[in-house]
Amino acid sequence: MDYGLLKELSNADGVASNEQAVRTIIKKELAYYSNTFMFDGIGSLMVTKAAAVNDAPTIMFAAHMDEVGFMIRYISEIGIGYLQSLGNVEARAEHSQIVRATTNHGKVVEGVLNSTLDASGNIDQIYVDFGFNSRKEFLKSGLNVGNMVVFSSEFRELSSQNIVAGKAMDDRTGCFALIKAMQSIEEDDLPVNVVAAFTGSEEVGTRGGRLTSNIISPDIFFAIDVAKNPELDRGFMNTRKVGGGPMIEFYDKTMIPNPKLLHFLQVTADNSKIPYQKDMFKGGGTDAGTAHLENGGTASAVLGIPLRYCHDPYSIASEKDLQTMSILIEILAHKFNQDVVDKIYQF
Predict the structure, then answer these.
(1) How many other C-beta atoms are found inside a 10 Å radius of the C-beta of residue 18?
(2) Of 157, 298, 150, 281, which Cα lies nearest the Cα of 225?
(3) What is the pLDDT of residues 272-293, one digit of tens each?
(4) Which of 12, 22, 197, 268 is most buried, taking the most CB atoms under 10 A from its CB?
(5) What is annotated as the active site (predicted)?
């Protein structure tokens, strides 16, 4: 599998409501489906592979385009830009980092991100020093309030076999796996409609999942997302081991999946010899948390990719996990049918 696409996705800059660079890559990669492209009002992209039979159920897979990052909020008289966080950036990542901001005209300006602490030692203010000495210099550069700021990290392959590092792996790894799966099924005859949704504004409230689910009204919804691996714990309570295969999520605080759907997932993976991990989120949620409440309730589940250092300037991922996730999506597209969906909804 060619991972040049993952590099392109990781290096692209796109925070909530500003995902155009990522969306452009996805549209190019899935041009085969261009006549099916749909968008919600916040920029989420929906791509459809139609079933080979009439009146088929619809299975939706959603991966979000936006990354955690910042927005310029204030400009001081000495030319410092103070930031608003977009998503839950790790506190350890808010000190002495090289970042890049993008002006309204697409110019990229690099600077050093730092932060101040309050009396309790918690982050108080996050700011960027671009090297300016006045507000006038700051504005002359083209930067202004509202401009996007992201970590200036570049994708790379590490010395360890099949291990990569880069920014925005949450959720560009999910986008990558979903793109590859959609490419693999281009010419296949399927018993279901498959919709790939590349959602916007997930990191600030799982908004794209809700909107795309409302528009498509799928019979089954899957969030293809990530979870942070506790990097120093390799014991039995770490169910997010990098290289251990995708995670099937049994719980998060926004959704508990339909048990019949979870059973079908496990049986399908087992029969297909797909390695997977059984995981639960202690906190947080995904697009499935809002999507499963649309259209009277939709059977939903989360398929996760394990990452180390999620929401940091660099995350570590396994190429093997991404390939396995892509294969699992492809297999599910073939294994679902009307009978399977009907049984999931028998209460």
Answers:
(1) 23
(2) 281
(3) 999 999 999 887 789 999 999 9
(4) 197
(5) 202
Per-residue pLDDT tens digits for 253-265: 899 999 999 999 9
Residue 311 known to bind ligand: yes
| Contact partners, residue 123, CB within 8 Å, separation at least 6 | 91, 94, 115, 116, 117
203 is in an annotated binding site: yes
Tell whether 292 is in a known binding site: no
- pLDDT tens-digit map of 176-213: 999 999 999 999 999 999 999 999 999 998 999 999 99
Query: Catalytic one among 202, 249, 319, 330?
Result: 202
| Structure token pair of residue 167 | 């920014």
pLDDT of residue 237: 83
Contacts with 115 (C-beta within 8 Å, 6 or more apart), sequence order: 94, 95, 123, 124, 125, 126, 127
pTM: 0.95
pLDDT confidence bin for 160, thresholds 50/70/90? confident
Q: Give per-residue burial for 70-109: e unless 16+ CB within 10 Å, then b.
A: bbbeebeeebbbbbebbbebeeebbeebebbbbeeeeeeb
Q: Which residue has the tokens 């599998």?
A: 1
> Does the annotation mark 202 as catalytic?
yes
